[in-house]
Structure formats: C-alpha cells, structure tokens
Design a protein that fits this description.
single chain; 329 residues; mainly alpha; 13 helices; globular; binds adenosine-5'-triphosphate; binds magnesium ion
Amino acid sequence: MKKRIFSGAQPTGNLHIGNYLGALKNWVSLQNEFESFFCIVNLHAITLPQDPKILKQKTLDLARIYLASGIDPQISTVFIQSDVSEHAELAWILSCVSRMGELERMTQFKDKGKGNAERAGVGLFTYPVLMASDILLYQTNLVPVGQDQKQHLELTRDLAERFNRDFGETFTVPDPFIPPVGANILSLQEPTKKMSKSDSNQNGSIFLLDDADTITKKMKKAVTDSGTEITFDDARPAIKNLLTIYQLMTSKTTEECEANFAGKGYGHFKTEIAEAVVEFLKPFQQRVKDYSDEDLKNILKTGANKAKTIARETLKDVYEKMGIVGALN
Ligand code: ATP
Ligand code: MG
C-alpha cells in the first residue's frame, strides 16, 4: 500500500511564489509516489476576518490553482475542508487533548494575533489543533509544507502521540516534508519575514497570477543588501532570497547561478530574475484558464466523498476509544 500525504492552503488572498515553491511544487512531485490528499482549508481562513463573497470565490479559485500547478485529480484527492465535517469534529476532540501552554508557544499565533492575545480570535489560537485534525484524520505519513509550518507539525505529532498513549494506538504519527531549498521564501520588501498572502504590502509578494509588467515592477522595487556581490550568503538575506527564487525558477545549480551573475550589477540581476519568473509562470497562467467552475465542482465533490469515507473511519475509531457513543449509532 502507498503511504499517504496530506497538505493544504488557505483560500485567502492570492497564492504567491512562496506557496508554490515551499508547498505546491512538492505536492505535484510527490503525488505519484504517495496516496495524496490536497485540501482547500476554508475553515482555517476564517481564523482572521474574511469577506464572505470573496472567500467563496477564492475557494474555487484555489482549486483552479492546485490543478494548474499540476495536481492531477485522477491521482490525487482534492477537496474543500468544510465539505468533510469530520475535520471540525476531530478538532473539538483534540482541543480537549491539547494544553493551553503548548498552543501559547505557537509563533504564528503571536505573529498573526499581533502579540495582543486579549483581542485575538479564539479560532486563531486553536488553529494548530484544526490543522492537526486535518492531518491525523487521514492517517497521514508525510506532510509537505513550508518552514513556517514546522512548529505546527511538531504539535500535531505531540497530539497524536499523546492520544495514542492515553487511548491506545489510533493515529499515524506524521513526518514533515520541508524542502531543503524554497521552504522559506522571504518578502521582497522586508526580507526578514516570509512572503505571505496576508501581507498588506502587495509589493512584498509575487503572485502566481501577476502579469509580466507587475512582476518586473515588483522585482525592481525589491529591497537589496549593501555590497555588490551576488552570492548565496546567509549574511545577506535579501540577495540570497532573490538568488534562491532565480535558482528554483531556472533549475540551475548554486554554482551556475553565482557564475551567471559574477561581475554584474543589481539592476541586471533583477531584470534577469523577473524574466525567469515571467517565463516560469507563463504555462501555469495559461492552464488556469482551462477549468470551468462546473469542472471544478465535480472534481471537488468526488474528492470530498472519497475524503469523507476515510475521515469517518478514523473518527469512528476515535469516538469508540474515548467512549463517546450516541443513541443513533
Ligand atoms: P497567510 O498569510 O494567509 O497565512 P500564507 O502565504 O502563509 O498565507 P498558507 O495558505 O498559510 O499561505 O500556506 C500554504 C502553504 O504555503 C503552507 O505549506 C506554507 O508552509 C507554505 N508557505 C507559505 N508561505 C511560504 C513562504 N514564504 N515560503 C515557502 N513556503 C510558504
Ligand atoms: Mg500561512
């Protein structure tokens, strides 16, 4: 039997090249080897305020982006989180197994809650428990994610191990799959923080659907480090980030990338990266137009039915182990 992978993205804002390089690219390359579940995590999206109309539209748009990236719905299960109510059910169960202290240590809560726990939503606080539920429902072996999700994955493993210890062997304990290059693409404007969909400064991110002009402009505005050398140097994160983007877009080796820009100025460097990104995104942007809403809905329905069967099985086992029995079953 094939091992399983599970991953997802939130239908918030627009997907950027960080999401692609850190996550989607690996989903595509792993889908043949693993039984794959790719979820549109709309219940995670509402941990911050969303406009309902936009959220609805973005949900279908994200499915389109998954497929245009190369996710094959004949091989992989693509579905919307809210279609499988077991995600929310298991999240409640696991929130009863989680401790306040371990959730308080999650850095994403501190970042997104802007350090103001008093004002932050409870959903934002318990977000990692819902994420653990997403993963554990499918007895997932491997979770391909970006670096920012490493801490949430560790919590998922802790919750699975705790549940297994307290109630008997129930969940597969998943491993993260974090790519060695591209797992932490930084903002073009503030290269100390990651590129993010929810960043209010749109110039910090290159979106998968940006046109050539926009990409060129954003790249020109990208912050650089002092000095002139164009090398992969940890001490110069802005240049390293731009070089990493170039490397992943062109599939060149580290040495080839550095040799390509030896003796060249930042202006030339930025133009060449912009060209590489535009070229790379061209076929993707073409494919996005291939899917009608109708096609997508059919794929998502099939996906939800398949996911639900597996999710229900896990949840039934969880309820049984915990002594949760109703009158109807
Ligand atoms: P938001 O700001 O709304 O949280 P996001 O950009 O973090 O948006 P998510 O939907 O939360 O996007 O994450 C989807 C996937 O993309 C996750 O696996 C995450 O680890 C990965 N990812 C997000 N940002 C980056 C980044 N800058 N570099 C590499 N991977 C990333
Ligand atoms: Mg995120």
